[in-house]
Each structure stands twice: as structure tokens, then as C-alpha cells.
Write a structure and sequence with these properties.
With about 425 residues, this protein is of the alpha/beta class. The chain folds into two domains: about 180 residues, 3-Layer(bba) Sandwich (FAD/NAD(P)-binding domain); about 120 residues, FAD/NAD(P)-binding domain, CATH 3.50.50. Helix 2 runs parallel beside helix 5, helix 2 runs parallel beside helix 9 and helix 4 packs parallel to helix 6. It comes from Phaeomonas parva. It holds the Pfam family Pyr_redox_2.
Length: about 425
């Protein structure tokens, strides 16, 4: 890592308002901001969520907390509970028919849980001032980098202000790619599915990655008819044995997988139903179309190009050990073109390690294998791909285990609506 000239200096010494400005209040940005403050740095954390095309927005915490890991696991748990009702007879229970989920109740309680997490993050930031020499000032504003030390931000009322720092961290994450075909604006994304006012009903999911299949899995488990259009193969880059098991579980759950089929246009009829023209004919009668064809880094409007920060063709910020080609500008998380995976625990660790290096004197970190999981119709997890293990460490033996259902339940305070 290149010495950016600010090691060990406090605001009164370097002349800027803060030691660090963090742009993006997701898992990585929060981890970096909190750790840096606990090490004595004065931090300004800026976060702003532009509404999705369907109008969805949310609070502090980033993708994982608001529209990713947390709600996904809760909806998956709801689907497992429905499946458990059907299994109960085998364990001696005289179970009633599982019926249909009350979407409004599920949505309300999940959103309340998420809002409690948003509030918790705000509270944590305010407490840091009382626990260390550093601090984190939170600003709900849309940030644009004006020069190597200056950030302009606009709040939700349109008021514009600027502030400065010795260092800037870019941790803005990514947003779903829109469906690129005529009528694609009729599709929602994973940013919208967890806050839908009305039940999704008969759903078409477009995509073959983990977001697409996880959504398909819990929607089918909740009792909705689900079809998935997949361009080529399922879960590219995942261990193929795991992929085969995921595919079987989805099909057993009633999900219709249409592999090698692409959407060509969407059209909504007078009855509100969506017809999808595909490369193999028309599919009709959908209440919801969910586009999950990948995510793109949310870096286009940050001002990085004017500053001269190098970006890759896909929009991700180039870096070496989280440092960009502009020495005092750093980047972590899903917006970063680096060697680590797009996983929440990885972003958190990257943020904490970077804070240690900048404010605690630790050396540069490195990547390693990270555990991952997939919540489809079943919960599948892996630490590394078996094929890679055999090539890189032939002395190691891969292991597998199939567990009985034991979902980790998060308590929701149920409110029936």
C-alpha cells in the first residue's frame, strides 16, 4: 500500500474536517467507519438510497440488511415453516392443511425487523463518541467527490453542503441490473420483492444466479406458482455437485426451470396480467416478473472519472489492497474490482482490516477461501469448490454432510393484519 501522507495525523494537524469520509452505509462502510472511530479517527459516514425504478427505498445498513441477506433468510424461514407443516404428520402430528401464507403479515413483520436494525445502526454510531477519542458523524446525503479531499452531498430536501477529509472510502455497493428488453420496466427486482404491498402471485423470475434461485425457492415454498428463465446454466461458478442438488430441490418444490430461454418483451394486458414473449414462444398470465440478471456497481455518479480514479469496464473501482490509483482514496465491498468475493462477511472484514492498517498500524491483509450458502428450496452451503481443492491441495479430502432441517429462526413480533 502506498503511503498517502496522512498516517497518524489528526484533523487539527492535516487541516481537513475529518480523518475519513465513508461514502456508503452498507456492511463494509459501517465496519470501516466504526473501527476507524474506535481507533481514534474522526469519521463522516454518508449514505443515501436512490429509489428503485419501482419506488422502493430503505434505511441505513446497505443491501444485506434491507433487501438482501436478512429479509431473504426470513422469507426462506417462512417457506420452511410451511414445509414443516406438511412433514409434521410423519412425526405423529395431526396437522391441518398448510394453506396459503398471509403475505401482508409476513411483509409487515419483516419490514419492522429491518427498521429495528436500521435504528440500531444509527444508535451504534452515536455511542462511539462516548466510548473512544474518535467519532462517526452520519449524514443522509447523496455524495459526489469533487476533488481528492472534498465531498459534496445533497440531502433528501435538496440542500447541498460540502465537507473535507484526509482520506475517502468508496463503499457504495451495487444495484440490480434492469431487464434489457421492450417492456422491461414492468419487471421488479430483488430491491422490491420484500416490500411488495400485494402478494406476488404467479411469478416469472429471470436469471440463473443465486438471487434469482433463492427468490424462486422461497416464493414456491410460500405457495406461489413460479417459473424461472435461465439463459444458460444455473449458478455459474458454484460447485457443480451443489448446483445439481439445488436444481433437484427447486424442481421438487414445483419450480418450472426453463433453461436456455430468454425474455424478448413484456406486455401488460387490460387484466393486469403480464405476457412475456420469449425465444421459445409466449408465456402468459404472470402477476409479477422479477428480474435477477445480475448487479452493477453504483459508481457512475460519484465523480470518480473526474478525479482520475481508475474503474474497470464493468464500473467497478480498481484497487490494490483496497487502495485506488489516487493514494488517499480507498474502496471496499461489492463496488470493488479486487480478489475477494461479494459477500457481507468479506466486506466487513475488509473494512475492519483497512481501518487497522490506516489507523492502527497493521500490515496489508490478503484474500482467502470464504464460506458461502444458497437459500433455494433447500439450504445449501459450501466453503470452497471441490474441483479447486483437488487441484490446489490434493492431500486434502473433500467432505460433505446432509443435515436434517434445523432452520435458525429469527423471532418476529407477529402482528396480524
Amino acid at each position: 500500500m502506498v503511503d498517502d501522507g496522512f498516517y497518524g495525523q489528526k484533523p487539527s494537524q492535516h487541516g481537513f474536517d475529518y480523518d475519513l469520509i465513508v461514502i456508503g452505509g452498507g456492511s463494509g462502510g459501517l465496519a470501516m467507519g466504526k473501527k476507524a472511530a474506535k481507533l481514534g479517527a474522526e469519521v463522516c459516514l454518508m449514505d443515501f438510497v436512490k429509489p428503485s425504478p419501482a419506488g422502493s427505498t430503505w434505511g441505513l445498513g446497505g443491501t444485506c440488511v434491507n433487501v438482501g441477506c436478512i429479509p431473504k433468510k426470513l422469507y426462506h424461514t417462512a417457506a420452511l415453516l410451511a414445509e414443516g407443516v406438511g412433514d409434521a404428520v410423519d412425526y405423529g402430528w395431526k396437522a391441518a392443511d398448510k394453506g396459503m401464507v398471509d403475505w401482508a403479515t409476513l411483509r409487515l413483520n419483516v419490514q419492522r425487523h429491518i427498521k429495528s436494525l436500521n435504528f440500531g445502526y444509527r444508535t451504534q454510531l452515536s455511542k462511539i463518541k462516548n466510548e473512544s477519542e474518535g467519532k462517526v458523524d452520519y449524514k443522509n446525503g447523496l455524495a459526489v467527490i469533487k476533488d481528492a479531499h472534498t465531498v459534496e452531498y445533497t440531502n433528501k430536501r435538496g440542500k447541498v453542503a460540502t465537507t473535507t477529509a484526509a482520506r475517502i472510502l468508496v463503499s457504495v455497493g451495487g444495484r440490480p441490473k434492469p431487464l434489457d428488453c421492450p417492456g422491461g420496466e414492468l419487471a421488479i427486482s430483488s430491491d422490491d420483492i420484500f416490500s411488495l404491498e400485494e402478494a406476488p402471485g404467479k411469478t416469472l423470475v429471470v436469471g440463473g444466479g443465486y438471487v434469482a434461485l433463492e427468490c424462486a425457492g422461497f416464493l414456491a415454498g410460500l405457495g406461489y406458482e413460479v417459473t424461472v428463465l435461465v439463459r444458460s446454466i444455473l449458478l455459474r461458478g458454484f460447485d457443480r455437485e451443489c448446483v445439481d442438488r439445488v436444481q433437484r430441490s427447486l424442481e421438487q418444490a414445483g419450480v418450472s426451470l426453463r433453461i436456455g430461454v430468454l425474455p424478448e418483451s413484456l406486455e401488460k394486458g387490460a387484466d393486469g396480467k403480464i405476457t412475456v414473449q420469449t425465444s421459445q414462444g409466449a408465456l402468459e398470465g404472470f402477476d409479477t416478473v422479477l428480474a435477477a440478471t445480475g448487479r452493477a456497481p453504483d459508481t457512475a455518479a460519484l465523480g470518480l472519472d473526474d478525479l482520475g480514479v481508475e474503474k474497470k469496464p464493468n464500473g467497478k473501482v480498481a484497487s490494490t489492497h483496497e487502495q485506488t490509483n489516487v493514494p488517499n482514496v480507498y474502496t471496499i465491498g461489492d463496488c470493488t474490482f479486487d480478489s475477494y468475493l461479494e459477500l457481507t462477511p468479506v466486506a466487513i472484514q475488509a473494512g475492519e482490516l483497512l481501518a487497522e492498517r490506516l489507523y492502527g498500524g497493521a500490515g496489508a491483509g490478503g484474500g482467502a477461501a470464504a464460506a458461502g450458502d444458497h437459500l433455494g428450496a433447500v439450504h445449501d452451503a459450501l466453503v470452497d469448490k471441490e474441483e479447486a481443492l483437488r487441484e490446489e491441495a490434493p492431500q486434502c479430502l473433500p467432505g460433505r454432510a446432509q443435515l436434517l432441517r434445523a432452520p435458525a429462526l429469527v423471532e418476529l413480533r407477529l402482528e396480524h393484519v
